[in-house]
From TrEMBL:
This is RING-type domain-containing protein. It comes from the Eukaryota. InterPro entries: Znf/thioredoxin_put, Znf_RING. GO terms for molecular function: zinc ion binding. The keyword Disulfide bond does not apply.
Length: 254
């Protein structure tokens, strides 16, 4: 019996995000857990997209452990350390790079997310709305309507540290799987909706790109049909004409 469960871990099935019948990814974090949701499985591509959305890492939509996708495999993300921006540690580090002075730079998931998704929050003190480059929603552990427990400086009216909550219009932009568990949102459904939007946008971009290339090709064909000199001459003439006009203008002023 146990063997049958293990065999289905990375077998074929329906991905809970894209709803396609596809090979499913084995999850390092919770495939062995005997949870009631263990029938919820995902394909590698959906998990990869979800990780890309979070700077390379994301929380497992099933158990919320940090994961990343490396070499066609879902792996547990264990890169923790000191963040070069907020200087806190240990933090889950998502982006690494080289500083101009050669030293290494590591950005924690909170700083990275906050930078990517600076949402608008309402101040509990003055009711003002401020954009904050930090995932303040994480501190709203009592629900999306409740103000968070960790303060941030209010530059609207208070001039001091106050509590915040995401404004309703921006709640949907909280990354999926990143909201406190108490929000009770259907993480899988949210990821699916977002990826559907992104796929549609990508398709539109591709179509636009294709049109642009076709237009360029038409222009190039048209240009080849005329003498090369003819394409250069008008620009020179225009320049001369402008210079002449300028000259004339100066003369008139004098
Ligand atoms: Zn999928
Ligand atoms: Zn998991
Ligand atoms: Zn940080
Ligand atoms: Zn305020």
């Amino acid at each position: 019996m146990a063997e049958a469960v293990a065999a289905s871990a990375a077998g074929e099935g329906t991905c809970a995000i894209c709803l396609e019948e596809t090979p499913l990814a084995a999850l390092p974090c919770c495939d062995n857990a005997t949870t009631t949701e263990s029938t919820t499985r995902f394909c590698l591509e959906c998990l990869r997209m979800n990780c890309e959305h979070g700077g390379g890492v994301a929380r497992c939509p099933r158990c919320r452990a940090w994961i990343s996708v490396e070499d066609e495999e879902v792996v547990a993300h264990d890169g923790t350390g000191r963040c070069s921006i907020c200087m806190q540690e240990p933090r889950v580090l998502v982006a690494r790079g080289r500083a101009p002075d050669g030293g290494s730079v590591a950005i924690c998931d909170a700083c990275w997310l906050g930078n990517q998704i600076a949402l608008r929050y309402e101040c509990q003190g003055c009711g003002g709305v401020q954009r904050i480059p930090h995932p303040m929603w994480r501190y709203q552990t009592d629900g999306p309507e409740a103000f968070g427990h960790t303060p941030w400086a209010c530059h609207v009216r208070c001039g001091t540290y106050t509590r915040w909550r995401v404004i309703p219009e921006d709640v949907a932009r909280v990354p999926h799987g990143d909201a406190p568990e108490s929000w009770g949102v259907d993480i899988v459904r949210q990821i699916r909706a977002r990826q559907g939007r992104e796929r549609r946008r990508a398709a539109l971009r591709e179509a636009g790109e294709r049109q642009r290339r076709e237009r360029q090709a038409r222009v190039a064909r048209a240009a080849r049909a005329v003498e090369p000199a003819a394409a250069v001459e008008p620009a020179v003439e225009l320049h001369d004409a402008m210079a002449a006009e300028e000259e004339a203008g100066r003369c008139r002023v004098m």
